[in-house]
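Course assignment 3, question 2. Fill in each field.
Student: A.L.
Task: Predict the tertiary structure for the chain below.
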Amino acid sequence: MFDILILPLCLILFAYLAFQKWSALLIGPMVTIVLIILAKLPLFDTMLGPYMASAAGYFQKFYLVFLVGALFGAVYKETKGAEAIAHAIVKLTKGKFAAPLVMTITGLLTFGGISGFVIFFAMFPITLELFRRSNITRRLIPAAISAGCWTWSMNSPGSPAIQNIIPMRYLGTSSLAAPLTGAIAGIIQYVLIFIWLEWRTRKLKEKGEGFDDTDLPNKSDKVEYTASHLPNPILAVIPPILILVLFNIFKLPVEGAVIIGTLVAIALLWKHGKNFENWIQILNKGGIDSTLAILNTALVVGFAGAVRVTPGFAKIIEGLKNYNLPPLLFVAITVAIAAGAAGSASGGLGAAFEALKSTYIAMGVSMENVHRVAAIAAGTLDTLPHQGAQITLLAITGMTHKQAYFDIAITQIVIPLIALTFILPLMALGL
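Answer field:
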């Protein structure tokens, strides 16, 4: 029994250190060492073997995806291309449904190939001003921004997000795997998140909670909605659309689609990068951001790789197998557990496929369905409180877990689980 208890104990330690703002670069190896000692595994053999093999394998497989995504994101952040798209959408809607609108914008930006971390920084000033004008409590800002990044936009068919790429690489499926049920799941997530954010906005207003920036970390984040300093939104939206067309219709690898989109973005937004020297700095920043992002993820994936060789993990998987679960439910549960262990949807996917790919294939079900179920399931328990990305977003927005985590959990754990619950029977019926 203790073999199994080690895993949640290490996750609690992981969450505690993350709450204390330790870097994932340190948390990953530190918690892995604790895990190894408690599980009575050989320390150096496990660290230099399964831990580093998992971390290095993840880096090898996905670094180029992170690199081109970070370059594209840097271009859109520094030229204010993302802000131009957001501003145009806000103008069309006249500020109604402010929290769901933010979720919609961030989702569209993610679906266009811009990374979540870039969207955090690009969207926060816009969201802040939109909430200020609508007198909406800031506690909903983290959920509104991140729900768009890490639900329907990352796990729906056609998404260029890493969570849709990983199953492609392991299973040989396409980006549009399980298009009908995947689209249904995406629509369910979008509609339920929209309803939840709007309902919460009204309920909190009824309780007297409105906008309050007295404890805002950086008051200079206030912006005014003027388009004069922004790129033309029509020009700004062309590269994301181009990426989607190249990726889904012309079937280019995501790396190729995004790098072409980046080059087109540079050409269209050149004057907003000011000059050649500044463009070099923009691209340098994208390269640095990509390395930090993948190292943070890879070193946590290494923790999941060490978890995989513990007796407790083997007992959990064997126990699940002995329950004779429906195959796709088994996929959903095991991927969700791996994502929770890794504190990362992409890290959990990588760990789950490394450990269980042959098991998934041997179950005899459609690999397209495995792809879609895994992509959605990865975006559930990854959002436990120790997730590094959420901690980063809370720091940016000046919110605490106590203030904002409830809405994060509903939009990014509960609602994706509802979508999964709905589509699993449909897949079992052959849809």
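Instructor remarks: Residues 2-428 form one domain. The chain has a mean pLDDT of 87.
Grade: pending
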